Structures are given as C-alpha cells and as structure tokens.
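Deliverable D5.2: sample structural annotation.
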Amino acid sequence: MSEPLVLVATDGPVRTLTLNRPAALNSFTGAMHVELRAAIEAAVADEAVRCLVITGAGRGFCAGQDLNDPDMGPGPDGKPDVGAVIERNYRPLALRIRTLPIPVIAMVNGVAAGAGANFALGCDVVLAARSASFIQAFSKIGLIPDCGGTWLLPRIVGRARAIGLAMTGDKLSAEEAAQMGMIWRCVDDAALAEQTRALALKLAAMPSRALAATRLAIDEAMPASYAEALSIEARVQGELGRAGDFAEGVAAFQQKRAPVFKDR
C-alpha cells in the first residue's frame, strides 16, 4: 500500500497533520485535498482534540498546486480549468480552516509557495523556521494569488506590500515575513517543533469556543465600521457569556485556581 498523503499524530489534546509528499515539496493534488479535509473533519469530530497543527514532511511546508496532477485536467474547451480546481479543492479547504471550532497553527518548516503560502496564512497562528520562506509564485505562471491570498495579503501586510509580493513573486524569508507582520513568529529551525508544541498545548488548555469566536469576530470586524464592530462584540460576548467556559473562568478566578475549560 502507498503511504498516506497526510500523516496524523496525536499528542494529548493536540492533533498534528503532516502533508506527506516530501519529494514534491508537499505540493497539493486532488487526492491530498481529499485526505486532508477528511483528517480535518476527524479532528473536529474528536472532542478530545483542542488544537490542530498543520506542517509538511521533509524540507518543505507546501509548494502549492502540483501542476502535473491529473486534477488539473482540461475543461470542456480542452484547456486547463484552474477555476474549477479552486472551487473543488481550495475554496472549501480555506473556508473550513477559518470556521474550525479549535485554533489552527501552521508550523512552516520550509518553503511555502503559491497556494501553500496562502494556506498557511489562512491558519490562526503561523510559526516558521528561520530557513523557511514564503513565495507568491502565481505571477510566474500567469495567475493571481488564490487559496484566499487576494483577501489575506492586503489585510495582513497592506495593499502596497500585497501587490508587490504578488506581482514580483519574490521569495520572502521567514524573518522578513515576521518583521512585516505576515506571520506570528520566526524561530530557529532546531526550536520550531518544541515551540510549536508548547504553543499548541497552551492554546489547547484555553477556552476553545472563545478562541474560535475571537477569529470570527476579528474577521467580521475588519470590513465593518467601528460602530458595527462594537455590535459584533456585543453579540459574540452575549453568546459566550452564557457558555460554560465563562462561568468556569469566573469561578476559577474567584477561587484562585486554574480553570478547566471544556466548551468547543
């Protein structure tokens, strides 16, 4: 039997999914998308999982779409239908990552290019090895950023940098990405796994429902007015204030003990 295209490992409340096509820098295929989405749903279905980590096998995180994949086959007009690939694979993947009930960490261990870069940026927190890099490689093959890149990039780094990165397709080091606020942190290669695990365990011990709601509220507030953002906050706080984790957090604070959060 062939090796799985996505490796699954569990460390207490943390589930790690490893893209597993190292010889191809973990570039996406239709088959990998199927396995990845199934692994994500399995993590969501497991109540014991409270944080998800996504990384790549070997020396790369993900080099984007595998252009030799049969999934890139021609459309009715005999020409490649890249739009259909996006609708079939990347759109559902990007949307699901942004709606998970648990926090998601991208552990970028090497090059993240094209859709692979934007897939990482769509996660909640990105930790990258110092040797890692991010490349908006689309312009080099006559395409535009996808997997949410056109939405993510200008909101993360601003319009000028987003257009510069997308048009030039220049390689951006992990250190530069951290300096411009594109990712959460750049760490030494040898410390990447350890620091990712520490962060994942920290997030897993926190109130998962509130963390997921934080992501949602920030995303909703970005295109909103200040008044609309305040209304979003009131709505979300109203929901969370009725949840068990808020009651537990208040009780733990009053009793001077560590809280035990359970909501998802």
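Annotation notes: The domain at 208-254 is CATH 1.10.12 (Lyase 2-enoyl-coa Hydratase; Chain  A, domain 2). The chain has two domains: 6-204, 208-254.
The annotation will be released with the project's public dataset once the embargo ends.
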